[in-house]
Amino acid sequence: MKVGKQIPSEKVEPTVEKHLLQSRKYLFNAYKSISDRNYDKASEFLWGATAQIIKALAAKKGIILSSHRDLWDFVEQLAKELEDKPLYDAFFKANALHGNFYEVRLGEKEVVEAAEDIRKLISKILGLIGIRDDEVFV
Description:
The chain is mainly α. The chain has a single domain (5-136), classed as Four Helix Bundle (Hemerythrin (Met), subunit A), CATH 1.20.120.330. It is 77% helix and 3% strand. The chain has helices spanning 12-35, 39-60, 68-82, 85-103, 108-129, 133-136, and strands at 5-6, 63-64. Strands 1-2 form a two-stranded antiparallel ribbon. It is globular, with a radius of gyration of 14 Å. The termini are far apart.
């Protein structure tokens, strides 16, 4: 994979941990925002949780992603390598949620459904990192 910049080997694990913790925090806040019926805010937290878990996987591979373009390229390549179009589709959905924070076009039904897809994506990515989701998301 030739996306992003290389991380020095001694910084790989701390970088993975940083992104895992941030993803967990954002996912928790997303579900809290959903329960508070604040769907535009939940949308942004869901996007953040997705972006951070993708960055964690990239870091595990020794890569730092520093732009939206890097995220898109990494996910596209990953989905092709794994022959996993649903992974790409879930990322696409997360990006739509990112836009919803600014445009507020999606309601409860769409955000709640997307949250479930994103939760599955996060579980899948955790597996690729080599972590059971109950080790991170309790």
